[in-house]
Amino acid sequence: MDVSVPHKPSFQPLYQQVKDTLLKRIAAGEWPPGTFLPSEYALAREYGVSQGTLRKALNELTAEGRVVRYQGKGTAVPTFDADQHLYRFFQIVNKQGGHEFPVSQIHCARVEKASKEAVAFLKLETGAKVFRLERVRVLEGVAVINERIYLPCACFPGIESYGMNTLPNTLYDFFQKKFQVTVVQILEDLKAVSADATDSKRLDIPVGYPLLSIRRIALDLEDRPVELRLSRCNTAGHTYHIQLR
Amino acid sequence: MDVSVPHKPSFQPLYQQVKDTLLKRIAAGEWPPGTFLPSEYALAREYGVSQGTLRKALNELTAEGRVVRYQGKGTAVPTFDADQHLYRFFQIVNKQGGHEFPVSQIHCARVEKASKEAVAFLKLETGAKVFRLERVRVLEGVAVINERIYLPCACFPGIESYGMNTLPNTLYDFFQKKFQVTVVQILEDLKAVSADATDSKRLDIPVGYPLLSIRRIALDLEDRPVELRLSRCNTAGHTYHIQLR
DNA sequence: AAGTGGTCTAGACCACCTT
DNA sequence: AGGTGGTCTAGACCACTTT
Prior knowledge:
Largest sheet of chain A: 6 strands, antiparallel
Number of domains of chain A: 2
CATH superfamily of the largest domain in chain A: Chorismate lyase-like
Distance between the termini of chain A: 36 Å
Oligomer: homodimer
Shape of chain A: globular
Order of helices and strands of chain A: HHHEEEEHEEHEHEEE
Helix content of chain A: 10-25%
CATH architecture of the largest domain in chain A: 3-Layer(aba) Sandwich
Largest interface: A-B, 31 and 30 residues
Structural class of chain A: alpha+beta
Strand content of chain A: 25-35%
């Protein structure tokens, strides 16, 4: 591989450099979501490295959820509506531990000036515009999650033109298809809170009822925050499920 | 590697077989926690495989948290009091996102017959004995977590002899050192609940106050459940933090 | 049959730790 | 200096998918 500056200061393995440039090319849209990358051999030849080295780079990208590999077929950039990524970031399960497909009722969708909270978590300039989306997610007929979502308008140009009737259920798929924004990582902070008047109305529960509060920040391929989501969940019939190693 | 039966039915790669037998040897205590395995070359020679194949097996065990590797030193079985594993399964952070060392106040420590819940989650026989431990965890002087822990007596022979004054703060380290039980995986279900009378007294909060309820099942090296832990957390000053990819 | 990713080898050399 | 894990290569062959 051609490297203009030799790596004296801090050693960087070859596969790491290959991985970084591959990620940049994916982020730049050279291989749009749903399409396949060139084969290992083709890429190895292009970079002038061995198949094993290129393979190691691709395997790391796989582990980070940035590509998906299929034996006999090839290496693809994943989409949310396929590749088993539907529930990748959806941790709410029912009592049997199963996922349910959520339906959304949208209560609010408009552009506004970013609040201090949004500025802080989305790393925006003060005064930046955000798209505010409020919706209730319904699982098997029951209103379970009341959530408020902030999207930086700079990341989603033209999102103002979408409204209550044109916004889809599955946002991350929508981000990818319409705005070339791919969410690959999620940071969440969980708390227990009491239902306020809005929660009470939208989730049909008494004021003061305990809710699971989730503050989510979604990061794109290049680790930039692209969504702040504040969810308040009724956990009477559902739980937030996690596995750690 | 010697394999008596060829792998006709479902293909099993060599490194997978090596990995499985290595894991069995670790679980059997051949290399106790804190000690080092033989070098890659020594193990490769022993199994009659190449260094690369043995390496792949060890790398998978590393990814699963079953061994720790140090360049220039060797491959070790991790302990909880070292190897950066102190906070591996401790997701509660303060407002600055930092971990705090928890101190415990023990309220109850005794053997009893397993409840239906304990039987179900710990996969016990009905009537099996468990060790019940109730404690409050104090972070920077504030009582934050009220928890009840059930341990199968079969997994921890002789644990009856420990009491309120001899049980340590960090249980997983204690499990490993005294009972050769290594926790490598955690399953958790989170809910929001209201504080009951006991929570109120122990955490110095009003009855009805919203608490984060965590049901944790801890699994050992061979994926057997070894602990059921029911925690109720005051999230006024702390949050449960998670990162997903 | 051809093309893809997945496994395995043997050997070389590099980076890091200990002595 | 010697030992350990970490990288890299070149080439072989296997398993899976598609044509």
